[in-house]
Each structure stands twice: as structure tokens, then as C-alpha cells.
Write a structure and sequence with these properties.
Length: 407
Amino acid sequence: MPASSPDPTEEPSDKPIDWPGFERRSLLKILGVGTALTLGSGVTTAHERDEDDGENEQSQLDSYYGFATPDAGEVPEDLDPDHEVGLHTELPEDPQNPSRPPFFHFEPAGLNVQSGDVVQFTLQGPDHTITAYHPGMGFQRRVPEGVPPFSSPVLNVGGAWLYQFDEEGVYDLYCGPHHVLGMNMRIVVGDLAEEDIPDYVDTFEGSQDPPLLAPFSKEFLEHDLNAPSEQNEDCEWTFLTPQEILSAPSLDPSTIQNQGSVPFEAVLGDIDRFPDGLQAPEEDGETAVPTVQVRSHDEYGDILVDSDGMTLYMFAQDPKGMRESNCRDDCADLWLPLSVDGEPTAGEDVQAALDVFEREDGETQVVANGWPVYNYARDEAPGDANGQGSGGVWWILQPDGTPVMPV
């Protein structure tokens, strides 16, 4: 446990501290027991294991401890992560007169990966862990059955931790030091059908009886603030909570699968008590979700899709690189030009250069690798590719913007 952590056996002081908007006891005094228990379980690095077990090589991805390094630039080449997640601390613009509390968050907050993928977690802020909700950590199980209570150590800024996600299912993760401040994320491994979504996605409960370690909700935390002292009566919990984060519609497993990744800003948009979010307005009308993303298709492999996960196509009769479209009028009613306000954004693994041009109707159409891109009106759901090969001129695109044509 870090030297700065409080002694969980100390008697809490009833002396209130200054806090904008209310009085309360020291937050660390109130949360000391839960924090100590959280950080005291499963945070040993892989190379600290028994030297006789044969699995203590520095680049070993341990099923409990993953692989940790104090320098993200020194991740061994043989680990080769498939995805990267940042761990951030976002302070208010004016910490002396905050309009909101600090946000401690993962970026993205939701991620879809495939079984066997390696995810690298890179620290952009200090003093974070990546830990599984698991009975072994004193919490409700929120990872697939059979998955161990894995955790990183407490990491420094610029450090990284890697873990391989093998079992398909829904993984809810938290940062040990900032768990009760809503530092959570969800990883969906595989392509899950509705019947595969676990019950814990919609429930929040402790593994203890009584549930001593279940500070998921705002109500629970406010009770813990108010109960020990009359001086704290009517204190309101101002921080994010795990339940708010993991209950956000944008982190529904089907949404994560459709979009591939979900930014933290989208989750904040689902929580009505933080209407200003990160107080970083979108520039030029860009949406939080990337305009063009890469998704895995059962038949065609990795392909380009839009922000809703719908398949994108190119039209062979368009002149490549000329920033113009030959699909107009009735054609554009069936083959819908992908349009944006401002500049398009590229998601993870998009290799195609993105550009735009103004159509005759005034819409701004997106271009990928020199090809204007379109949706097909008869595709009804993400994963549909009903327009592939239509008329011998409509083709889906690989991540680098190359059309997928028969050999």
C-alpha cells in the first residue's frame, strides 16, 4: 500500500474539512478500509512470482498479473498489443473554484476486442491500477466465470500494463485508488449474442453479507458520508460513481460491439449531472465517436464502417482521388453518401487517409483512400454487407481503403 494511504485501523476524525458546497469528514478516512482492501489484493507483478514455476520471464503475460513496465516505450516487441487504453486524470479548469469534481477515467471507456487480443493500458495520470471486479477482490463478480482476480500493480505516469483477454464475455474493470470516484471501464471480448450478456451488466451488489465493499451507487456513498457524524448531515456525493459509469447506455455491450470503442466523453453525455462534461467543446461539429472505424466481419475480415458500425462501400464509377461523386439523385437514395460537418475522424486501426469534398447538394462527403464512401440503404444492422459486389461496381473497403474485390 502506498505510504500516503491512511491506516485503516485509525479512528476517523469528526473534524470537517473545507469543500466547495458542503462539510464532510476526510474522504480518505471514510474510504480508508475499502481502499486498503482493494490495493492489498493481487497487485504483484509477473516477475515477482516463484522463480521455480518457470513463468517469471519479464515478457510473460501472467493470467493474474499481466505484464507491467515503468516505461511504456520499453514494452517487449514480442508482446505486440492489439489495442491501447489510456488512464487519465482530468482536473477542473479552475481547481480553486471547481464547477465539477476531478474525473479519473479510462480512454476509451468501452472497448470491443477478440479472444486472445492483448490490451496495453498506458498511464497518462498517476497512481492507477487496472483491476477486475471479482469476489477475490471483495466485489461482485463482473468478469466471466473462470477468469482469475487479475490486477496490475499501482503504476506511475508513463508506465504501462498489458493483459491478454482470452475468455469471451463482459469484463468490468476499475482503478483501485479511484474506484469509488467512478474510474471504471468495460471490455467486451468476442461478438456476443443477446443471450450471452451476463446478468451482472444490470445488477450492482456486493460479494459480502452484509455488502461492506459495494460502493457502486451515489446513495451508498452519501450514506457513508452522512452516517458517522451529524456534522456531515445532508452531504452530497459530487464525484462520478461506478454505477453511473457502468449503467451508461453508451457502455451497453451491444453498443460497444457496434462501435468498437466508446470514448469517456460519450459516457459523460449519459450522466445528466455533468452537462458540461470535460468542458472541452467539440471542434467543428465533430462527433465523439470516430467517423470511420474498423470492424471485423465474419466473411470479409477487417473492413471500414461508420460511427454506428454500418458497412461502408466505394463506387467503382467514381474517379478515385478526384473528390467528386457519380452517385446522385435516385442512386444517392439507395447508396447513402457518408457525410460530416467539418473534418472526419479515424478510429483505431483505420489506415486509409480520410478527406472530404462538397457534393452538388451541399453535403460534405467523406473520402477514404481517395474513394468517396457510402452506406447501403438495405443494410439493416452492423455486420450487414448486402451491397457487396452489387452491379459489379459496389465494394466494401479494407482498413487501408483498398476495395475488397473477387480475385
